[in-house]
Design goal:
Blueprint (H helix, E strand, L loop, with lengths): L33 E5 L2 H10 L7 E4 L2 E4 L8 E5 L4 H13 L4 E10 L9 E10 L13 E2 L3 H13 L5 E8 L7 H9 L2 E5 L2 H10 L3 E11 L6 E2 L4 H17 L4
């Protein structure tokens, strides 16, 4: 016997139509407006050191750690590490429910453009949704997600004030790091994509859906532009750029 399934037609999501929603429990912290989301363990540690967070300010958040500042509107919190759009979305949804309104994401990326090299700093102006999460928040965005203009302009200004070179432009976001094929890289090079990473489009999309400001900054950790993978995780320039960006974020948190 053949079973016929009616095709599900995606429509513009409603904030109130989900069966499962993030909640604030009795023991959930009250976060201030500003939260930094650090994708890597190394950057999480660097930011915590710069901002002088103590171990007694740490709580578990899913499989990550959340360092909570003092309980007042101006406090800053830091969450991480994490990887991938679905998990990043779980984190940011929870952080927003707990009070976050201005969120800065710091992550690593792979160079797609031949002009982008290991250690370069990238300020994404938009992100291609090639991951599976964003479409459940904004299916009508023509495959593109954009950051908060407010956060992006603050990041840009801080980079310029510190005389740091950086590139602005489009990034490609995917769940499948082992399916970054030559054909896809060529395609996105023709679209003038600078780099590839895993979380940015989902974070931008959730930010828009929940009416909060989300922006991001990336450092290039590896290269795919020649169609051969060139890792640079131990490259001196990469390490220097990581530390510089952590300092930029530290300064940025004081003014947003």
């Amino acid at each position: 016997m053949k079973t016929r399934f009616k095709k599900y037609e995606q429509r513009t999501p409603d904030k109130k139509d989900a069966i499962l929603n993030p909640k604030k429990g009795n023991k959930s912290p009250n976060l201030g407006d500003v939260v930094v989301m650090a994708g890597s363990e190394a950057d999480l540690q660097s930011l915590c050191s710069l901002m002088k967070f103590r171990e007694d300010q740490k709580i578990r958040l899913f499989m990550s750690r959340l360092y909570v500042g003092n309980d007042h509107p101006e406090c800053i919190s830091i969450a991480g590490p994490f990887i991938g759009a679905p998990y990043a979305t779980m984190l940011i949804e929870t952080l927003i429910t707990w009070g976050a309104r201005k969120i800065i994401f710091f992550g690593w990326c792979g160079a797609v453009s031949p002009d982008i090299k290991i250690g370069d700093i990238i300020l994404p102006t938009s992100a291609i949704m090639d991951e599976g999460t964003s479409k459940h928040y904004h299916p009508d965005e023509n495959g593109m997600a954009r950051p908060s203009l407010y956060i992006s302009e603050k990041i840009k200004a801080t980079l310029k004030e510190n005389d740091l070179e950086f590139s602005e432009g489009l990034v490609w976001c995917t769940d499948a790091i082992y399916r970054e094929t030559r054909e896809k890289v060529e395609y996105y090079q023709n679209k003038r994509v600078l780099a590839v990473e895993m979380e940015m489009s989902a974070l931008f999309t959730v930010g828009k859906f929940r009416d909060v400001d989300v922006g991001g900054i990336l450092v290039v950790s590896d290269e795919l532009s020649t169609f051969k993978w060139r890792p640079g995780f131990r490259d001196e320039r990469f390490e220097e750029s990581r530390q510089v960006v952590c300092e930029v974020i530290h300064n940025l948190c004081q003014i947003i």
